[in-house]
Design brief:
Blueprint lengths: L3 E6 L4 H11 L4 E7 L8 H4 L11 E2 L1 H6 L3 E4 L6 H10 L3 E4 L9 H8 L6 H5 L1 E3 L2 H8 L4 E3 L3 H15 L3 E12 L14 H4 L4 E2 L8 H12 L5 E7 L6 E9 L5 H11 L6 E3 L17 E8 L4 E8 L3 H15 L16
Parallel strand pairs: 1-2, 1-4, 2-3, 4-5, 5-7, 6-7, 8-10, 12-13
Antiparallel strand pairs: 8-11, 9-10, 11-14, 13-14
Bound molecules: NADPH dihydro-nicotinamide-adenine-dinucleotide phosphate and N-acetyl-L-glutamyl 5-phosphate.
NADPH dihydro-nicotinamide-adenine-dinucleotide phosphate binds next to helix 1 and helix 12.
C-alpha cells in the first residue's frame, strides 16, 4: 500500500519536532517535508542531535512542504494557520493544526482570549475539533482539524463520563492543572529559565488562561448545558507531562464504586484512555513519552464531590500523538498505528 506523505510545518519547534519523531516510526507514513523559517537549509539533526543519522532532513519553506504532502501538520504560534489551511483545503489536502486557530466554535471567544480575528470564516465551517475519544464520528471525512490544547485534552478526557451522564453541578467545577515546561515551547522565557523554575512551583494566569473557553466549550457540548469552570494552571519544574485534578459537585449521591463503573463503561473501547483501578492515582511517571491518558477516580463522600485525576504527556497525547491519532482516523487506519509505545517505568 502507498505510504501517506506527511509534512510538518514548524518542525523546528517542540511540538513539530515531536511530530517528526513519531511520524518517522509510523509504518504507513513517509515524512515528505519539514519547514522552519529560522533554520531553512539546515538539517533537523543539527538542531536536535537525537535525529542524527536517523532523520537528516533539511528544513524547507512552507510551500515546498505543502506541495509534497497528502497531509500537512502545522505547529506554529496562533494566528498563522488560516492561510496555510486555505492552501491545503483548495489543493484537497488534509490540514491538522496543533495551534488554537480551529479549536473554538465562536469567533468572539477567539477574539477575546487570543486577541485575533478570523480572516477566512468560511474555512472554520469546514473544520472540526479533533478529540478522537469524544468526537470521532465528526472527525471522519473532514479536511481541517483543530487539534485540542494540551490542558483541555487532560480535562475533557478526565470529566467526559460525568458530564455526559449529566451528573455534574455545571457551575461549580474546579480544575487545578500542572504542566511541565515544554508546554511553553522552545522560546526562552523567564518563567521557564532553569534557575527560575527549578525547585519552584507556582500557579500562573489564574482565572485568565486562554484554555478556559476551550474547556468550557467541550464540557458544555457533552452535557448540553452552559458550563462554568475555575481553571488554574501551574508550572512544574519538569520537562513533560500534565496532571489535572478536577473537583465536581455531584447532583446525585453516589458511591465511588458506581462512579468507577461509569468511567470503565464509558472508556471500555478506548485504547488510549486507561481508567485506573480504584485505590490507584494517576501519575506522570507512567504516561510520559506515551499517547496514554491515565484517569483515576476518587470521591469525597462527606461532600459528595468527585475528585478526578488525569495525566497525559503534553507533547504526545496533548499535541503530536493526538494529531497522528486524527490522521489515522482520516486515512481509515487503526487509530493507534504508530502510537502504542509504553511509558518508561523509571
Ligand atoms: N508545547 C506543547 O506542549 C503544545 C503546543 N501546542 C501548540 O503547538 C504550536 C507550536 O508550539 P511549540 O512547538 O510548543 O512552540 P515552539 O515555540 O517550540 O515552536 C514554534 C514553531 O513555530 C515556528 N514559527 C514561529 N514564528 C513563526 C512565524 N512568524 N512564521 C512561521 N513560523 C514560525 C517556529 O519556527 P522557527 O524555527 O522559524 O522559529 C517553530 O517551528 C503552538 O500553537 C502551541 O500552542 C499544542 C499543544 C501542546
Ligand atoms: C507550561 C505552559 O506555558 N503551557 C502553555 C500551554 C499552552 C500550549 O501549549 O498551547 P496550546 O494552546 O496549543 O495547547 C500555556 O500555559 O500557555
Amino acid at each position: 500500500m502507498k505510504k501517506i506523505q506527511a509534512g510538518v510545518i514548524g518542525a523546528s519547534g517542540y511540538a513539530g519536532a515531536e511530530l517528526v519523531r513519531l511520524l518517522w516510526n509510523h509504518p504507513m507514513v513517509e515524512v515528505s517535508g519539514i519547514s522552519s523559517k529560522s533554520y531553512t537549509g539546515q538539517k533537523i539533526s543539527d538542531l536536535y542531535p537525537g535525529f542524527y543519522q536517523i532523520c537528516d532532513m533539511v528544513f524547507q519553506d512552507e510551500d515546498s512542504v505543502i506541495a509534497a504532502s497528502d497531509v500537512v501538520f502545522a505547529s506554529l504560534p496562533h494566528g498563522l494557520s488560516e492561510k496555510l489551511a486555505r492552501k491545503c483545503f483548495d489543493a484537497d489536502k488534509i490540514f491538522i493544526d496543533l495551534g488554537a486557530d480551529f479549536r473554538l466554535d465562536k469567533e468572539e471567544d477567539y477574539a477575546m482570549w487570543y486577541g485575533l480575528d478570523y480572516h477566512d470564516p468560511a474555512l472554520h465551517k469546514e473544520s472540526v475539533y479533533g478529540l478522537p475519544e469524544l468526537f470521532r464520528d465528526d472527525i471522519k471525512g473532514k479536511k481541517i482539524i483543530g487539534n485540542p490544547g494540551c490542558y483541555p485534552t487532560s480535562v475533557a478526557l478526565g470529566l467526559a463520563p460525568i458530564m455526559k451522564a449529566k451528573l455534574a453541578d455545571c457551575k461549580h467545577i474546579i480544575i487545578d492543572s500542572k504542566s511541565g515546561t515544554t508546554g511553553s515551547g522552545k522560546s526562552l522565557s523567564e518563567a521557564t529559565h532553569f534557575p527560575r523554575c527549578n525547585e519552584s512551583f507556582a500557579p500562573y494566569k489564574i482565572a485568565s488562561h486562554r484554555h478556559t473557553p476551550e474547556i468550557e466549550q467541550t464540557l458544555s457540548r457533552l452535557c448540553d448545558e452552559d458550563v462554568l469552570i475555575n481553571f488554574t494552571p501551574h508550572l512544574l519544574p519538569i520537562n513533560r507531562g500534565i496532571i489535572s485534578t478536577m473537583y465536581v459537585d455531584l447532583k446525585e449521591t453516589m458511591k465511588v464504586e458506581e462512579l468507577h463503573v461509569l468511567y470503565e463503561q464509558f472508556y471500555a473501547n478506548e485504547q488510549f484512555v486507561r481508567v485506573l483501578p480504584l485505590g490507584k492515582t494517576a501519575d506522570l511517571k507512567y504516561i510520559k513519552y506515551s499517547n496514554y491518558c491515565d484517569v483515576s477516580i476518587h470521591l469525597d463522600e462527606r461532600s459528595n464531590r468527585a475528585i478526578i485525576v488525569s495525566a497525559i504527556d503534553n507533547m504526545v497525547k496533548g499535541a503530536a500523538g493526538q494529531a497522528i491519532q486524527n490522521m489515522n482516523i482520516l486515512f481509515d487506519l487503526d487509530e493507534g498505528m504508530g502510537l502504542k509505545m509504553v511509558a518508561p517505568s523509571f
